[in-house]
Write a structure and sequence with these properties.
With 169 residues, the protein is mostly beta strands. The chain is built from three helices and ten strands. Helices cover 11% and strands 31% of the residues. It has a five-stranded mixed beta sheet with strand order 3-2-1-9-10, covered by helices on one side. Strands 4-5-6-8-7 form a five-stranded mixed beta sheet, with no helix packed on it. The longest helix has 8 residues. The chain is globular. It starts with a strand and ends in a 7-residue tail after the last helix.
């Protein structure tokens, strides 16, 4: 049976209701850094298992020994790597590579056939399409589907509600 992997990044200490609703049904959550909240990490773990890497704003938080700047793992027969910065991913190996940092979503298959995804940001999007997350459907090492999902804008929250650390561009 295929697994549904939710891919998120750059939540910066704020998990909107829209994001939490969108994560319903995820078998795994991959977070590509700048979560900026130990309690948000625990909240996500209550939804599904979480694979988290550190982002540039995650200093000063203790997420445990399995959370590093660059993580690698095997899930559903595929080799994954997750790093906040795309340029630090090694696109010469593995099946799926996930990054964040830019708050701009995209996905593509590299010449070597690796799925490369940046889910954008559900908190501080840098695109006119608004907040976003990614989804990867996988079964027995094969990616069946990859897509970006755009969430409704959280008009009720202002920047103070969102909390966390965000250093604008």
């Amino acid at each position: 049976m295929a697994k549904q992997v939710a891919v998120i990044s750059d939540t910066h200490g704020y998990l909107s209701e829209g994001l939490l609703d969108a994560l319903d049904g995820a078998d795994l959550i991959v977070h590509a850094g700048d979560i900026c909240s130990e309690s948000d990490y625990r909240t996500l773990q209550g939804i599904a298992p979480v694979k988290l890497c550190l982002g540039n704003n995650d200093w000063g938080y203790d997420y445990g020994p399995g959370v590093k700047r660059h993580i690698h793992f095997l899930y559903e027969g595929a080799l994954w790597q997750v790093c906040h910065y795309e340029e630090k991913l090694d696109l010469m190996w593995g099946s799926i590579a996930v990054c964040g940092h830019t708050h701009k979503p995209f996905f593509e298959h590299t010449k070597r056939g690796i799925l490369l995804m940046n889910p954008g940001s559900p908190t501080y999007p840098r695109t006119s399409k608004g907040p976003s997350i990614g989804w990867i459907e996988i079964e027995k090492g094969k990616v069946l589907d990859a897509r970006i999902e755009y969430l409704a804008k959280d008009e009720d929250a202002d920047d103070e509600d969102r909390g966390g650390f965000f250093f604008g561009w």
